[in-house]
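[STRUCTURE TOKENS]
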Amino acid sequence: MPFEWDADIAVDERLLRRLLGRQFPWLAIEHVEPLESGWDNAVFAVNQQYVFRLPRRHIAVPLMEAEIQLLPWLAPHLPCAVPVPHIVGRPSDDYPFSFAGYTRIHGHPPYHADSDPPARSSIARAFGSFLQSLHSVSIGEAMAHGIAIEDSIGRMDLRKRIPLLLDKVEQACGMGYFDGREQLVHRVHALIDALQRLPSDPPPRAVVHGDLNFRNFLVDEAGVLSGVIDWGDAHIGDPAVDLSIIFSFCPPAARPPFFEVYGAVSPEMELRARFRALYVSLMVLLYAHEIGQARQVRESLLGIANALDANAQSDSGFPHSD
């Protein structure tokens, strides 16, 4: 059975070297380092100065092309580094897709090292500034620079996503992740019940990143937010899709610094953000389980507990895996 993250095309170092040698010979490649790839793209550091992302799935091609158009304009509006594509590769006989190179943003994904609640409070404050700026960007100007005008896959379509969420909970239960933690499953159903009682008023709209999770931002050695990456899902949509990061990465005690900077949100938006936090945490859990990435499993489990306001150790019992 194929998984939704399976590649459509193989991308490796040999292919990258061939593409860069033919399209950008001035790079004079000395060193190539494969970096952790996501579902959609293979990622490589080149000469320790650039990062190149190459789509490995057909569905990712328009997302890459949207990043290429949007990020050079958007970057100056934000208080945090983002990958601005200034080397753009074109489709060729060697490789059928566009691809992009960026000046490397130094840092690492936060799951590479354990971070305690004070460190997560610091990141929360930085995210408050980042998301306040992003969600204040002019929608009209963003549309003029190629951003998607709607959420084409229905990230916050609850009628579509609630059954998918329950299916992911069932899969996680089958893998043993909720053994002895039945209270968390009850909290999942309580959250769904609350969501189904929400009024059907349309949510506010803003420019959103669209895929903020612990795999798509970087921190430096001090645990300070150093960059937000992977912008292929940016669109005009519900700000709750981005606010989910505060309800997954940050435990309750670490959230006040975020809201001091970002501002208060409605109870309805908080519920939607919690739902998105839970959904993405479960989705990444299943992915991390399949690829055997224990640290991502651990962070996903913490995200589930945080989204449900469960103590990550006493209520959930989730382990701190290496």
Observations:
- The beta strands are 32-35, 41-46, 50-55, 85-89, 99-103, 206-208, 217-219, 225-228, 235-237.
